[in-house]
Amino acid sequence: KKLMDIVIIMDKDQATISNSLNTTLVKAIGNGIQVKTYFKLYEEVKEAIPLQFAGNQFYSILPISKYNHNYFYLLWHNLVDIIASILGLSMMMLLSPIILFLNIFFKKGPLFYKQYRVGKGGKEIEIIKFRSMIVEAEEHGAKMSMKGDLRVTSFGKILRNLRIDELPQFWSVLKGEMSFIGPRPERKIFIDQLIHSIPLYDSRHLIKPGITGWAQVKYGYGENIEDSCKKLEYDLYYINNRSVTLDIRIIFKTINTVVFYKGR
């Protein structure tokens, strides 16, 4: 009778495991016991990559080059971007007159706002969104948006909850600067701070940023360094495991968020 079903190896560097321990683990596998690293178990259960255990394994677990040769996936991803852009921009054109009219009464000021965000390869790109905050939102300096942000107008909350404020960004997707699915683009001022605080943070720029993504549907808002670190775990999981199936899961989770009004 087995005394255990699974053995979890907590060691960050598998090269330090002794030969005697390896022999014991091989015997355990032979007796039907599963042997997994904490890293692998975390990835399977949380569907995220544990940064604290990545260590020297990082470049072997994130083989980004393989996506440059997966033509079927690239075709799928590009097709999703084109279809999503057409649908998103069409919806923006239909809703713009209504939002413009309501803007006069609920949040006087410009209908759109432009901002530079960091894209693939660390290159800055200009994005456009429907304005959801007060005009003087950053008169005291740049500040990360957070849940319950008082700078967001009452009408802006509706735009955000329904993701309508994101619609103008589909222009960036159509131009090829963004994708429909990918890590959320952040501003350089925040990126520079996070790179110094979180190891490997700039690795999320290996692919194009997205309007929606794995971190957005799995974690939601990021208000501090700890949240940004957790979201990075999901972003890296997506980069490492991009597939048609995962993209479809993200699309359905995004639709579910909008339909059931699960706002940011």
Can you describe what's shown?
With 264 residues, this protein is mainly α. The protein is 46% helix and 11% strand. It contains ten helices and six strands. The protein has helices at residues 19-30, 38-46, 58-61, 71-106, 154-161, 170-174, 188-197, 214-218, 225-241, 244-259, and strands at residues 6-9, 34-37, 112-118, 124-130, 179-181, 210-212. Helix 1 links the parallel strand 1 and strand 2 (34-37).
SSE order and pairing:
Elements: E1 6-9, H1 19-30, E2 34-37, H2 38-46, H3 58-61, H4 71-106, E3 112-118, E4 124-130, H5 154-161, H6 170-174, E5 179-181, H7 188-197, E6 210-212, H8 214-218, H9 225-241, H10 244-259
Parallel strand pairs: 1-2, 5-6
Antiparallel strand pairs: 3-4
How would you concisely characterize the structure shown here?
This protein has 264 residues and is mainly α.
Query: What ranges have pLDDT less than 50 throughout 5 or more consecutive residues?
Result: none
**Which class of secondary structure composition applies to the elements?**
mainly alpha
Q: Helix count?
A: 10
What is the string of SSEs from the N terminus onward? Answer: EHEHHHEEHHEHEHHH
Fraction of residues in β-strands? 5-15%
Assembly context of the chains: single chain
Percent range of helical residues: 40-55%
Query: What is the number of beta strands?
Result: 6
Can you give the mean pLDDT?
A: 84
**Shape from CA axes?**
elongated
In this structure, how is the largest beta sheet organized?
2 strands, parallel
Radius of gyration: 22 Å
> How far apart are the first and last residues' alpha carbons, in Å?
50 Å
Widest beta sheet: strand line-up: 1-2
